[in-house]
Amino acid sequence: MFPEEKKTEFVSVWVRDPRIQKEDFWHSYIDYEICIHTNSMCFTMKTSCVRRRFREFVWLRQRLQSNALLIQLPELPSKNLFFNINNRQHVDQRRQGLEEFLRKILQNALLLSDSRLHLFLQSHLSSEDIEACVSGQTRYSVTEAIHKFASSNRRFPEEDDEGGKKDNSIEFGSESSSSGLGHSCKDNSPHGCKTNPALQES
Questions:
Q1: What pLDDT, on the 0 to 100 scale, is given for residue 84?
Q2: Which residues contact 49 (CB under 8 A, 6 or more apart)?
Q3: Order of strands, edge to edge, in the sheet holding 28-38?
Q4: Quick check: is 61 in a domain?
Q5: Region (Disordered): which ranges (predicted)?
Q6: For 46-67, what is the mean pLDDT?
């Protein structure tokens, strides 16, 4: 018999479907749908869709940077003072920049071991609730939050027959697929990824 071929792990991420949301009578903002498709053991859900706004991406980058000081994080698209939510070109340029930011983040094993990133990508928790969950101040764990809040509306771009890996797929080779990717909070979840002590809360 032929030896079984080792399956390559991948994570695909899309930032899509920008929508104008009304914040109050005077203010509106754009949020974006983030879709994840993966076969990686590091993710609780193999497919998910959530919506996030730009300021939440800013928060995520700040928190990831504070917990990984030796890593140079990718930049977010610059905040344009003349950004117009009704300008399709402005919105699409920002969408592309946010997608590129996430693609680069998901290539880094150390960043991928931060529970905040997983809750950002696979739950509807606010930044405040994410911090509370990671700090153990909620009645639910990270895994429970993802199972409870992850979107059941799994709408994805067209995928090919090779596991859905297109240009926005991130492949982990045989070395990185066992390099300790996983959650960092006090979760005890059986997701098969090793916890990185460097990113745990003190």
A1: 84
A2: 33, 34, 35, 36, 151, 153, 154, 155, 156
A3: 47-53, 28-38, 9-22, 169-172
A4: yes
A5: 153-202
A6: 95
Q: How much is the pTM? A: 0.74
Which range among 69-73, 166-170, 174-178 has the greatest average pLDDT? 69-73
**How many Å apart are CA 75 and CA 90, to the nearest integer?**
17
Structure tokens at 55: 């300021």
Does 201 map to a domain? no
Nearest to 103 by CA among 72, 74, 60, 62: 74
| Spatial CB neighbours of 151, under 8 Å, sequence gap ≥ 6 | 48, 49, 50, 124
In the chain, the number of structural domains is 1
| Mean pLDDT, residues 140-169 | 60
Here the tokens at position 72 are: 């140079």
Look up the domain containing 59 and give its range: 11-153
Q: Using the CB atoms, write b or e for 14-35: b if 16+ within 10 Å.
A: bbeebeeeeeeeeeeebbbbbb
